[in-house]
Design goal:
The complex is a heterodimer of chains A (about 180) and B (about 200).
Chain A (H helix, E strand, L loop, with lengths): L4 H18 L7 H14 L4 E3 L4 E3 L2 H15 L4 H19 L5 H5 L2 H7 L3 H22 L3 H10 L3 H21 L5
Antiparallel strand pairs in A: 1-2
Helix pairs in contact in A: 2-3, 8-9
Chain B lengths: L1 H20 L4 H8 L5 H22 L15 H17 L3 H9 L3 H27 L10 E2 L9 E2 L5 H18 L16
Parallel strand pairs in B: 1-2
């Protein structure tokens, strides 16, 4: 059971504030591109190359904005990439400290089971598809729930509000259609 | 080196708090989005409000560097991408950050989310030139703007309102709405706590 919403909300707000106080607002989805770039560059070393001014790529997306993504691909030990690795560490430790998940829940969560049964294959397929749409959409939007919705609206960014409107306009109807039974 | 240390500390704190508020639990995301348990929405709104009040308040007191703000551009693709992310978020119960946290916390389905996400991001990287050519990535309403003009900031204001005061006010609104939101909108009875 999650912690009280007030305590949780305050702590989460404090983390957002610390991030912008000490470094910059939190964001995650770009790092999926960086990891793709790292994998792509390992397969084909021509993908990201060093130039006199910095880095560039044969992929137009990695090369955009003066090659800043290409630079991160070439130097994965940077703030934003390590940040996401550290999130995984924080999530792992936090879950260990509260005793972990049972075996069924680890593959098929309760709300999904109540509506679609216990087949892990169905769940994994749906989640894979969901992940594809989420990251395609996040990159098209230029950010995700963290960067646009939380960090964006916190800073009163117009783009954050536009993103949140789109996200909830789709998410609520889809959820109402998919998850009719409560768990 | 300092920046890597900060990434480790703030990133780990963010991951741990996402786990504790239930944001990386797909049951909890599903119950928020099908409007049967809004406690997570209340947490998130309180967090945005708290962050906003601290940041803008700190700026006004001269304790927070306005230069740390980073505002993303507004363009039509933000809305289209938002719709896509919303649909996938509802289906999977994960978004990019919470998917990573969930996988690390032992959820096997979240590994499939990350795999799908890597393919989705790669698909965008390959199709980016068509989006660029379509004009849907061109800035609208001034692009990288905040709702008001923040004193000393790099970004223009959508309106001429004082951006720091507006930020404080909107932060307060988020906090009030967090408290005012009911625990559930659809259905009756006490909210059910999602299984772990």
């Amino acid at each position: 059971m999650p912690m009280n919403w007030k305590t949780g909300g305050l702590l989460l707000g404090l983390v957002f504030f610390l991030a912008v106080l000490l470094v910059k607002p939190i964001g995650v989805s770009t790092q999926f591109v960086i990891l793709d770039g790292i994998i792509g560059d390992a397969v084909n070393a021509e993908l990201v190359t060093q130039t006199e001014e910095g880095y560039t790529s044969t992929n137009a997306y990695l090369a955009k904005s003066g090659g800043k993504y290409a630079k991160s691909v070439a130097n994965p030990l940077n703030y934003s990439f390590v940040f996401v690795l550290a999130m995984a560490l924080g999530g792992f430790v936090s879950m260990r400290l509260r005793g972990g998940l049972d075996a069924v829940e680890r593959s098929v969560p309760a709300l999904w089971r109540a509506n679609f049964g216990e087949s892990p294959a169905l769940r994994y397929g749906a989640v894979f598809l969901g992940g594809f749409i989420v990251l395609y959409g996040a990159r098209l939007a230029g950010g995700c729930t963290s960067g646009h919705m939380m960090s964006g609206m916190m800073q009163t960014a117009l783009s954050g509000y536009i993103f949140a409107a789109g996200a909830f306009l789709a998410a609520v109807p889809v959820s109402l259609i998919l998850f009719k039974k409560e768990a | 080196m300092t920046s890597i240390l900060l990434a480790l500390v703030i990133g780990a704190a963010f991951g741990a708090v996402l786990d504790r508020v239930g944001a990386s639990n797909p049951n909890y995301i599903g119950k928020m989005l099908n409007l049967t348990n809004l406690n997570l929405a209340k947490s998130i709104m309180l967090a945005i409000g708290t962050g906003s009040v601290l940041m803008f308040g700190g700026q006004m007191l001269g304790l927070v560097d306005v230069g740390h703000m980073s505002v993303k551009a507004a363009y039509i693709g933000v809305f289209i991408g938002g719709l896509m992310l919303g649909a996938g978020w509802a289906l999977a119960g994960y978004c990019p950050g919470t998917g990573v946290v969930a996988a690390a916390s032992g959820r096997k389905d979240a590994l499939f989310f990350i795999a799908g996400g890597l393919f989705g991001a790669a698909a965008y990287m390959l199709t980016y030139p068509s989006w660029k050519a379509s004009g849907l990535l061109d800035s609208v309403a001034g692009g990288k703007v905040t709702l008001g003009a923040v004193p000393g900031g790099k970004f223009d204001g959508l309106t001429a309102l004082p951006g720091d005061l507006l930020g404080l006010l909107l932060g307060a609104v988020f906090i009030v709405v967090a408290f005012a939101l009911p625990e559930r909108i659809i259905g009756t009875g006490p909210v059910t706590q999602p299984a772990e």
